[in-house]
Each structure stands twice: as C-alpha cells, then as structure tokens.
C-alpha cells in the first residue's frame, strides 16, 4: 500500500474509533443541554494562555499558520485553488465555485493585514488574476462588469454574491498591491451591484443574460456580501454612492426583520454592519444606528442557539450538531466576533464571548495538523459522517477568518492578553 494511503488509513481508524464513541455518548446523554462554565483565562503548564477550552495562544497561532500554508500551496500557478479534495482517496473535484474562490482571497487579505507576508500577497494576486481572466466580463449595461457564475465565454448567469464577494476580494488585493487592479474595474463591478439594487435597498439575487432578473431565487447571504463589497469599494474610492448603497442594503435587512423572534443566521450582515458603523455618520442610512445594532442583536441570539457544551470527551464541545459540521460553526464565529466590534456593553456580550471560546476551540480540533493535507479543515469532525474526509476551500476560509478575528479580539484591550 502507498505509504501516504497507509498513513491516512491508520489515522482514520484511530479517529473513527475515538469520535464514533463520542458521538454515541453525546446522543445518549443529550449533552447539548449541558451549560458550560468558564472562569476566565488561565495558563497551560508551559505558561501559554488558555484562550478557549483546550486552546492556547500557541495552538491558535499554529492553526492560522497551517491554514495560510494550505491556501498558498493549493493555489496553482494560474491562480486556481484546489477547490475540493477527498483526503481518503486524493481525488480532486472538477467543479468550481467562484464565490468561494473570492472568499479565499478575502481570507488571505485578512491574513495579510494581520501578518504581512510576500507569499500571501503572491497567492492573492494569482487568485485575483485567475478570477479577472476567467470570470469577469461585461455587464448588462455600458460601464458595468460582472463576476459571472461560469467561466467565460459560456457565462450567462450572474449571481449577486459572486460580484459582491468578488469586489471584496479585488479590493483586498488592491490594498495590498495598489497597482494590481485598476480602480475603474472595481467601480464597474460596483455599478452592476447598484443595477441589481431595488429602490427599497433590497437586491435581485440572480440575473440571467437572456431573460433578465430571476425572481425565483433569493439568497440569504448575497445581500450582506454585496453590502460588504460596496463598503470595500468606498474605502478605496471614497465616493458616497457606494457607502449609501451599502447603508440602504443593511437598513432594508434591519427594518424588514424588526420585531421578528426568529431571523435568519445572517453572519455576512453582521460582518458588513461592523464595517459600516464606523462610517455611519458619512452615510445617508435610512435606518438609525440603533436599528442596525438591534438587527445585529437579533442575529446574535439566533447564531448562539443549540451550541453543544461539555459533551463527554469534549470532542464536540463548541459545535452545533452531532456530526460536528465545521462551516456552520465557523460562520457563526465570524458573525459573532464581528458583532463584538460594535455591540454596547451588556450581558449579551459575555454570552457571546463564552459561545465564541467554545466554537474556536472546536474549530482548532478539527484541523488537519500533519501530513499532505495539513492546514485543511474537513466538512465534519466525526469520522464516518458525510464530508468528514472532504476539504473544500470555503471550510478553510471560514475557519481562518474566525481564528484571525479571535486573535484580534484576544489582542485588544477587551480580550485576553498574549503571554
């Protein structure tokens, strides 16, 4: 047997035995009802701070470094990432999703702001040029550009999220390398987002070249991604049209969900709100600052629901379902960490912090730390469940963004200081 396959097989067998027993114990004991108690920062035997259950400063830094290395080495010379790989067979998916590609660039941009590095910028630049060459083409009207959902020239469908997150990604590489992308290209992408925005601030989620707007499809996450793209463009261009459009988008979400007991788990809206509020006074936002914050509070309550605390063996502690799916945990952490940037002092902040501590600890335990897939994050933690041997770029992206935000919190005056 190939040594790599043999190594993977032994590892899977060990993890399968351990995690399967944990999963059954969890189901039997209904551990999701258990409430975790935290007593503030303590230290490991080596003196490093314990930031979350079973997480030290060293393990957090290592998780970030491994994820960064995974992205950089799986971004090919032409800028295409290994989109999805099965770690048990080594098979790579032929399909591709440009929205998740853009999300990977966004994560690398966040990484470079935290830890400036030439290799990170090179990977960002390769990935950005791949998107520009293969997916960005003329829009519906003159002066527009679109991140199409399929490669050119076969592209015929434009999804709001692709252009929104594509704009976020290209703005990130332009900040790192000012000459990498022409400002006019970013502005042209912004014009297409404005074209898709309705007068009330909402968006058309999908546009077909042959038939126009597709009212049959509405995405939960695309409006937040579009708002974040417009704010990213404003930060470079300083034209109020982009900021005001983003403010209208987030105002629509806040007002349309006001008073609802259950709102969607819209983590992108929280991330965009965190970027908008420092600029709020410059905008003509239809919603007040308090309305935007109240909307964020509604989302935070939803994001924290059903977190598993203190299961026997701790393996699933911090996750949100018995299989330990990683993306739902990571996106929740991203949103909650963004909310902590602007939520006023209240008991809710303490509850959010406890939820985040457990979630971050869980995500670090899921990461592949050794072997050919080190740095990758699987779809699910419990071996034998769907996706437990699959790594996809968005699983890594969301985890990396959560870890970077957590480290920033840790280093702030509010967070736990590094030892």
Brief summary of the model shown:
By secondary structure, this protein is mostly helical. It contains 13 helices and 10 strands. It folds into 2 domains: 1-73 and 306-419, no CATH class; 93-287, Glycosyltransferase.
Q: If you compute it from the alpha carbons, what radius of gyration comes out, rounded to the nearest whole angstrom?
A: 21 Å
Order of helices and strands: HEEEHEHHEEEHHEEHHHHHHEH
Number of H- or I-type helical stretches = 13
CATH class of the largest domain: Mainly Alpha
Would you identify the CATH architecture of the largest domain?
A: Alpha/alpha barrel
Number of discrete domains: 2
**Overall spatial form:** globular
Q: Uncertain spans, ≥5 residues at pLDDT below 50?
A: 1-49, 414-419
Give the helix proportion (percent range): 40-55%
Q: Strand order, biggest sheet?
A: 1-2-3
Query: Between the first and last Cα atoms, what is the distance in angstroms?
Result: 45 Å
Class inferred from helices and paired strands: mainly alpha
Strand content bin: 5-15%
- The total of beta strands comes to 10
Mean pLDDT: 88
- Describe the main β-sheet briefly: 3 strands, antiparallel
CATH topology of the largest domain: Glycosyltransferase
